[in-house]
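Q: Is it fine to ask for two folds in a single conversation?
A: Yes, each is treated on its own. Send the first.
Q: Here.
A: Result:
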Amino acid sequence: MIMSNLPILVRNPALGSQAAPWNTVRVLCFVLVVVVGGDAPKCEAAEPRAASASLARGMNEVLHPNAIPPYFAVRYEASEQEGELAMPVIYTVWIPPGVRSLRGVIVHQHGCGAGTSGESAAYDLHWQALARKWDCALLGPSYRKETENMLCPLWMDPRRGSERAFLRALNELGEMAGHPELSRVPWALWGHSGGGIWASTMHLLHPDRVVAVWMRSGSSMTNWGEEVGPKPPIKTGTWDVPLALNVGQKETALADSSGKKWRRIFEAYRQQDALIAWVVDPLTGHECGNSRYVAIPFLDACLEQRLPVPGDSSQRLRPIAPGRAWSSGTSGDTAAPLAVSSKLGSFASWLPDAKSGLAWMHFVRTGLLQDSTPPPAPNAVRLGADGVLHWQADADLESGLAGFIIERDGKEIARLPEQPSRSSGTPIWQGLTSGDTPVRREPGFRYRDPAGEFPAHRYGIRAVNAAGLASEVVPGR
């Protein structure tokens, strides 16, 4: 039995010489005895550094086999202490390889529905492309419903323990990854359903830490005293944080009161002169669909304009750049540049720049993505002695990664995947759940020519984005 409220850490073996908190080492020792059997290893307090290095390597394989660098994970068990999280949670973070110093963290917070989980969020190649661009970490919390009484209200109001666990995870994951600045950098928050409630509440609690918030089908703005606790005091700078409320057309069309609440939430923000976009997805209900193709441009623009200047130890967020914003006007699906001297209308949408404005217009009209540029070409392409073609690939920032074209002697012989993974929205390489998380964590970039006789042929590969555009061909070596 693992002691309640003590973390299970997955550490980078290369950093194993760093000491773990001593109570963590004791828990790791005990778990190894349960899993492996035999006498308990001696975890003497005089040698915590050596113990933490070897034990963390063992726990990496036992508990989180996929959390190897550049991925790091920590699990906290449910606590019975007042003010602490009353259900288990796993935090998984991806750190861009080669990054010298992190500038921020993008948090992808899952919702409350059946089957929702954030464990694969940090493995999402498309969200990684956004994080890599701005030297940000990508964090996926996953709250674990392990008993029937472990329900969403236990975590979606941060004040019930998830805020404290989140801050603790940033500190411990930063130490594990060799990036202690992870505990200090700003946050770009994305949340779906209950995750939107969590993200919108964190915005009110910590406006000085939040770059922007994307709320997909969830916000605490009109739920005070119902799904969440009382409204926190409004702090200086709260309404300077860019926001977006993204809902499905089928949600807004519901005949009962829940159909009307979304517009009321948006209007409540606009009454505070909040910088907020109203983003209706014409193809969906509560599921996320293709919303990442408008969320990522929105957050991209906000990260560009608001992240602290590199090297600024104060971590002070910058204000939105004047003269770059667009507005939709008071209604409709057309956006245009917003003059610096102009004031947003009562029901107008605000967008941070031209690129996000154009993406917004296309999305609210069609619910689809728009991209006219090819994706990055695959890299590290090699043909193994066993005839297997291996490669690496990065997702296209605009439209992700949908698949690959395999060529032999200059002619196409295969398209991967042969059968697209299950997707909510446009099919992509990893597949996509209704909560905007990958169906598959690991990309699996490999191919064997069924015709054989590989030494006699020349092979090449192209990447294909979700818009159907292909990269240049890269030969296997």
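Q: Second one now.
A: Result:
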Amino acid sequence: MVVTMGRTENRRDGRERSFEGVGAPSCTAHVRIRPRGAERPEVGYAVPMTVQRGTLGDAADAPTEGERFVEIARLGGTTIEQIISSTDPDPRPYDQPHDEWIVLLDGTAELEVDGTSVSLTAGQWVVLPAHTPHRLLATSAGARWLAVHVR
């Protein structure tokens, strides 16, 4: 089942149900629905998971130019990384073959997303669907991000 722009479509039989206020024009959520009375399916991992802990880097870890990328975790096809930016970010354009969600934890940033300027302050996030052209134009010293790459 896929929720897109406030409606759901059942991929198996093509039926549609409407849900007001669900989703947003730029969001898609994949939902598995269990029929009433059906047993709850077993969920497992092919590779045993272990509990992991860590500490995010702070602004003092910022490089003198560009960004520092640190992979925090890889879970199936999803990678979570922390990014710490300098005041001289790499303005190289990105066109990634996977979806990406980024949130600015601290600082300010100016991006160009598909030709449109996007300003971010701490706590703001952006979803970048696969192949959305984007680049980083400016950041405050030590701006800290989390990025989730979904393949």
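Q: Anything structural to flag on that second result?
A: Two points. The CA atoms of residues 7 and 93 lie 33 Å apart. Confidence is low (pLDDT under 50) at residues 1-37, 40-46.
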